[in-house]
Amino acid sequence: MAFAVIFLFIFLLHLPVLRLPYFWDEAGYYVPAARDILLGGSLIPHTTVSNAHPPLVMAWLAFWWKIVGYTPAVTRTAMLILAAFSLLGVFRLTERASNSRVAVSATLCTAVYPVFFAQSSLAQVDLVAAGFIFWGLSAYVEDDTFRTVLWFSLGAMAKETAILAPLSLAIWEFIGMAVGNDKLPRFWLAYGAVLEQRKYRSRVALRITTLTLPALPLALWYAYHYSRTGYVFGNPEFFRYNVAATLSPMRFLLALLMRIWQTVGYLHLWILTGATMIAMWMLPPLRDSEGDKETDRPRINLAVQMLFYVVVLTYVLAMAAIGGAVLARYMLPVVPLVIILCVSTLWRRVSFWRTAVVCAAVVFVAGWFLNPPYGFSPEDNLAYRDYILLHEDAETFLEARYPMAGVLTAWPASDELARPWLGYVLHPMRVVRIEDFSLEEVLSAADYRGNSDRSNFDRSNFVVALAFSTKYEPGPARWDRWRRWTQLKARFFGFHHDLPPAAVAQILGGHIVFSETRKGQWIAVIEMDRDGIQNAQTFPQRRTLGAATSASNDKNGF
């Protein structure tokens, strides 16, 4: 019954976005990978470069496409089923750790938190992996060995990074065993469960084994992936971008600060955590009457809290060390744990705690529509809807007016134009792809178009350009005036400024025939002038174009 209520609630909230075409990494990796399973049964994608992500979620989508049909509405509804299951895991975990009142409130806050809300209907894997972690933690608190192994194993098969949760807890249990029963503090679950040292050690050994077993199916998946592709952790570019290129002390420090912010303050979360800190600092626990005496409202068991803290700390450190893009969705396994702790503290110490929780939920809902005053990923709130609507309008115009033309654009619009099954165009279009619309890349495209000596040059390579904002920029912030800060962002996080469409048109030697903007995002169709080659030749020559002309230029959605 709880699952049905949760699903109906989030389904109605997402009803306006169920038919939207696929967005960003959905189009770049997850939907193509699931489609390969649907059409050929291949767990290793071949229409996009494999990233070695386990195939559980993609197989789930292929199953529903096979039963119901391949449409975005089916995809998003299938993901909402998993999101409802994840929220049910939050509810169950909170109920076991605290009580049903806190569980309802924490589940509500999690459901409407902007990142969780936006990711609920997107065909990506982080939220699903987070849900299995919540179920695994609940089973672990209940001391259910079988279900602990089951849920954590499914989490690892949803996304490989979910294995961090059980392995970190295994290390924590090992530390507890090393401390010894006579000195064991009360922040290990096994404390006081047995009195004899020998029985205690055997009990902890069983817990450690339970927590390490979920690594086995993940290891088998990697072995299978290696046997089919020759790579363990995905293609070399994926590994370089997400691991090799991130191993820098300076980058780790900067990413660590960003991860901490995403865990406790991002997109209005600071209001809830701030209220919690004030309550802990200024207010004593409330007292409830039990018969003839009054007792303090209980906090979450310290041993359970320590489980939460261990998982949160592990994810903050690990996600600061790996992952080329510091995306907020990577922290979904731990943000609900922070919400649970905050709501429990408010219930314990604040007499009007329900009002405080409702206010936090209202602010979270406002975060769906109000973009923050700093750069963020559009997939973290309904800005992704604005992106999709912009691209739908521009690409419909482009296909109607220039159906046979070559189009200069960047990923993911290159895939949107080349792959009709993503939902943007009816027929594939020829694409010349650049990385983005920074000055360097646009000058490279102008050089490519204007260099008549190039042996493979053809005026028809592109006669129109589809330029768009490849990242959300609210405007120049005060800290962006620091040249060193801008250099660090460009070096470690791929930061760049997209040129405005008028500048792109001038450099390429064309004029804007279509443009549209939505809340800080923009898109424009630029038609090349007849004398555009001569105009393009007036700009300094730069390096050659980074991507070849093709009908489909695959790129991983890092």
Structural class, please?
alpha/beta
Helix content: 55-70%
Mean pLDDT figure: 88
The end-to-end span amounts to 38 Å
- Poorly predicted regions are 452-460, 533-558
Report the sheet-strand fraction.
5-15%
Biggest sheet strand line-up: 6-7-5-3-4-8
Q: How many H/I helical runs?
A: 23
Shape assignment: globular
**The biggest beta sheet, please?**
6 strands, mixed
Count of individual beta strands: 8
Give me some keywords for this one:
alpha/beta, 2 domains, two-stranded antiparallel ribbon, 23 helices, 8% strand, disordered C terminus
Architecture overview:
The protein is of the alpha/beta class and 558 residues long. The C terminus is likely disordered. It folds into 2 domains: 379 residues, no CATH class; 168 residues, no CATH class. Helix content is 56%, strand content 8%. The chain has a 6-stranded mixed sheet, sandwiched between helices. The longest helix is centred in the N-terminal third of the chain and has 26 residues. It is globular and about 90 Å long.
Q: How are the elements arranged and paired?
A:
Elements: H1 2-14, H2 25-40, H3 56-67, H4 72-97, H5 100-112, H6 114-120, H7 126-141, H8 145-158, H9 164-179, H10 197-212, H11 215-229, H12 236-242, H13 249-264, H14 269-282, E1 287-290, E2 293-296, H15 302-321, H16 335-349, H17 353-369, H18 383-401, E3 406-410, H19 413-418, E4 430-434, H20 439-450, E5 464-468, H21 483-493, H22 501-508, E6 510-518, E7 521-528, H23 532-537, E8 549-550
Parallel strand pairs: 3-4, 3-5
Antiparallel strand pairs: 1-2, 4-8, 5-7, 6-7
Helix pairs in contact: 1-4, 2-3, 3-4, 4-5, 4-7, 5-16, 5-17, 6-17, 7-8, 8-10, 9-10, 9-15, 13-15, 14-16, 14-17, 16-17
